[in-house]
Amino acid sequence: MTTFNNNGVTTSLKDKNLLRFFLLGVGTLLPFNVFITAKKYFDVTLLRHDGGDAAAAARNGEGWFTFTKDSFENAFSFSYTMANLATLIAMNRMRVFDAGRRKDDDPRRRREEDVNEKSKLYDRLTTYPLLACAVCFFATALLALDEHIKGTFVVSFATFNLVLFGIFTGLVQSGSFALAATRERKFSTSVVSGQALSGVLASFVALTCSGFNFAALYFGLSGLACLLCAKGGRELVLEMKKENMTSNMGDDSINSGNISTQQYAPVAILEEDKEEEKKKKKKKESNNALSENDLEFNVEDERSNARLMGASTMSSSSNATTEASEGTEGAADEPPIKKETWLFRFAVFLTFTVTLTAFPAITSSIVTRAEMNNNSGSDDSNGASTDGDYWTSFLFLLFNLGDLAGRVFEGSSYAHSRGLQNVTGQVAFRRSLYRIVFVPLLASCNVNRSGWRIPRVFSFDSFPILFVFLLGFTNGFNAACSMALGPQTLSSDHHSPHSDEIENEDIEIENPPSLVSSSLTTERTNEDEEKEDVAKSEEGAFLGTMLSAGIAFGSVVSVLVCGIFTSGGYL
């Protein structure tokens, strides 16, 4: 059994695992958020002429890309997003979460090999990439200490780092969502909440840090944060291995007692008798059900024998029924993707597409009412100010706070009691679709851009504050809800979670199986659970791919939308 939410796990251990998943979530977006919010440092350092020092470049306002404001940020975003998305797509095509399954005849040896392979796999996907991110941060911190290094080298090194960050965080994102998908939904919520917190922390630094002077410290602390996230990932992998080994030892002791001679048979029979007496109290059917269940049990035995005979003889003409059952078992290796699963996928994709259409493409150009009046009076629609920089950073922080609040609210007891968490794929998709309204709302605020066509309806500063916070809140809530519910659609008991349990109880009450058949049934159940866990892991990783795809597509759509809203085009 490879599922990780075992009953023996204590509450304190679950809390520790929640924190570890939270750290993995922080690590997935921390590198990008750190680079994209170190604007003051890059304005002074990255945009200077070759051979020029930082102070002179700051005084003269000269740089490589002064003809296009924030073009280096666009280059950073493109480099990171494309590398991240390509990595996630490659991971999805490789089906790495199914690679660890073994076909050994010995069940105990097979499960041990599965546990070892999965531990190595998740180490490669979480611990090692975060360590590599820390190394890149430390190298950037050392580079920031040199005030006279050529701008060409700094730009090239930063872009190369963003490509590496995209690859490394793609691995972490795939591994963390895949691992969380096999557990309770609160672990997926913990991952996405960590992603939001990384944006909040980076926003605080952007507001308080004096860009150039504290750049080395900023990057160095970010490297230490990546080391902490790597430590959390490593502890999570070790705990996962420990849980699985403990579970396998328990299964092996039971199975070995069932299959062996009569040495352990009396104990097993006594335990079955005790359970039978308890279950008989819940018995609701008449004695006629006994014969019907016996008949079903015999039919099931015949089907099992036919399946074994068909597997050994491989005769297609005389065992048509057996082949049909084997075909069904083969199809179980790759469960069919349901319509509801696709709706959750599109909900994740659309959520981030809408978000990136408005944020930061439109929000970065929103200014305060006072600054808009000053610019209108001076005929300078592109004038930058210190207050404007702080206002933009404040809106960035506000969005991330709303994003974090939405993801935390999704896992709250209030949302659970109101039925806001457990929704269908159609509801999740509609929620994501309705968020398109934020694009015209934000476009109608004080957008300080030359040739902006949308009238300024919401001129007071309270409107963009409200809209940006709600944009972040709905983004976090919808993302957390869809990321948690998507993998659960692949569960065998998704539509009726209690019906299978009731049927199984009736069969066990009326037909106490023999020891050998009980062992075989347990083995088949373990294999089914393993297949289901693999499917959930792959679905969690695929949802992470849809998340990044939505970000990439939203960035493209934002350019088109801003081009439509601007006379003469966006660029």
TrEMBL record:
The chain crosses the membrane at residues 18-38, 125-145, 157-180, 346-370, 463-485, 541-565. It is found in: Membrane. Residues 310-330 have a biased composition (Low complexity). Keywords: Membrane, Transmembrane, Transmembrane helix, Transport. GO terms for molecular function: nucleoside transmembrane transporter activity. GO terms for cellular component: plasma membrane. Residues 275-296, 310-334, 513-535 are annotated as: Disordered. The keyword Cell wall biogenesis/degradation does not apply. It comes from the Eukaryota. Residues 514-523 have a biased composition (Polar residues). It is a multi-pass membrane protein. Belongs to the SLC29A/ENT transporter (TC 2.A.57) family. PANTHER family: EQUILIBRATIVE NUCLEOSIDE TRANSPORTER, EQUILIBRATIVE NUCLEOSIDE TRANSPORTER 4. This is MGC82995 protein (ISS).
